[in-house]
Amino acid sequence: MKIRPTKQRILDAALRLFNEQGYVHVRLQQIAEAAEMSVGNMAYHYPHKLDILHAIYRELRQGQEALLGEVGLAPVFGNFDYFLRMSFQLQQKHRFFYQDTLELMRESGALRADHQELIQHQQLQLEVLLAFNQARGALAWDGASNPTCRIARQLRRAMDSWFYLQMVEGRDPEDLQAYRRNTWRVMQPYFTETGRQEYESLPKLPQAV
């Protein structure tokens, strides 16, 4: 069996506990026990729980930026749907962050600044994706009132608020199909006939309305 590096053992244990109990309810002692080490040994790598939070967030951010880079290489509908499915998996892995985003940003000014940078990056990448699909004839809107920025913001919000809203409303937060449909609905009003046909060819999604 492959032995994980000590730092990764700590982060994996902390992530599991954060997801199960919420960040504020987990103590360093619990993380150390889950990682099968003493608090003293763990403190050599991560002296404070906030250090662990920052390290986990870096993994989340790197994963999201990698996905945005991939979809940007060929932002057609099929690749965007792949981006949605992979983003869903990333959110499920780090669900504590999406459930308690505001509280975590209050906990750390550095994390708040980092996450706002990621939000800006997501916004710009989604605007590029929308502009590309408009240029290739899959989306259309009135150029005099170009809604690219607004639609990109709606897409990002639909994705990032999914887990929290599903939990609050008592709905299944692990429903990938509902997550995909919810996000695609933001773009559906702007489908051209080409876009509609391309959307309807995607696997396991209902026809656009």
Structural write-up:
By secondary structure, the protein is mainly alpha-helical. It has 2 domains: 1-47, Arc Repressor Mutant, subunit A (Orthogonal Bundle); 51-200, Tetracycline Repressor, domain 2. The protein contains 12 helices and no strands. Helix 1 crosses helix 2 and helix 4 runs parallel beside helix 8 (109-135). It is elongated, with a radius of gyration of 19 Å. It starts with 5 loop residues before the first helix and ends in a 9-residue tail after the last helix. The mean pLDDT is 92.
Describe this structure in a few short sentences.
The protein is mostly helical and 209 residues long. The chain is 72% helix and 0% strand.
Question: What structural keywords apply?
Answer:
209 residues, mainly alpha, 12 helices, 2 domains, 72% helix, Arc Repressor Mutant, subunit A, Tetracycline Repressor, domain 2
Range of strand content: under 5%
Oligomer: single chain
Name the CATH class of the largest domain: Mainly Alpha
General shape: elongated
Describe the protein's topology.
Blueprint: H1 6-21, H2 28-34, H3 39-45, H4 49-73, H5 77-93, H6 95-99, H7 101-107, H8 109-135, H9 148-160, H10 162-168, H11 176-187, H12 193-200
